[in-house]
Amino acid sequence: MQTQSRLKRASKLTTALADEQIRWKENVTEFNEQMKTVTGNVFVSSACVAYYGAFPSSYRLELVENWVEGCKEHKIPVSDNPSIINVLADAFSIRQWVTQGLPRDDFSTENAILVTKGRRWPLIIDPQEQANRWIKNKEKENALKIIKMTDGHFLRILENCVRIGMPLLLEDVGETLDPALEPILLKQTFMS
């Protein structure tokens, strides 16, 4: 009786693992295909992080098409439609961002990648305050400081955040910035 039960469980396990083996083989094939184009895809994704900025999605698509064409002209292997989302984000991070309030569309996901992977401080034009909400939720655990340019002590708070590495959200930035921000925006800070 016990032996038959073990045989049944072993049979079920073998069947389940056979299905997994098929999935693993498909993954290996997919990864091998991705390896062929990784250089071009990473190049295009890096260009996206550097240059996408404030461009609308239609122009972003045009940029990617031009970069892909350039890669192909220079014989750099690249996917026909490389995606910054597929190269620089993973499903877990995207789900986490959505849970934190990021809208579910590709444009918002691309923008989140620009914010999290970019080397420059982002200036976010956010009339619906979607990015604002997302950043507040995302950085809540890191003791995010939120200030406005009109706050009386904004420079002192900014300096403290830079000194101790605390995240800061500067809201309601106008067309001109306080010149005191320039060294920080250019990352010209020094340790004493």
From TrEMBL:
Dynein heavy chain coiled coil stalk domain span: 6-66
InterPro entries reported in the protein's UniProt record: AAA_9 (IPR035706), DHC (IPR026983), Dynein_HC_stalk (IPR024743), P-loop_NTPase (IPR027417)
GO molecular function: dynein intermediate chain binding; dynein light intermediate chain binding
Example GO biological process: microtubule-based movement
UniProt superkingdom: Eukaryota
A Pfam family it matches: AAA_9
Single GO cellular component term: dynein complex
Domain annotation Dynein heavy chain ATP-binding dynein motor region: ranges: 95-191
Name listed for the protein in its UniProt record: Uncharacterized protein
Species the sequence originates in: Rotaria magnacalcarata
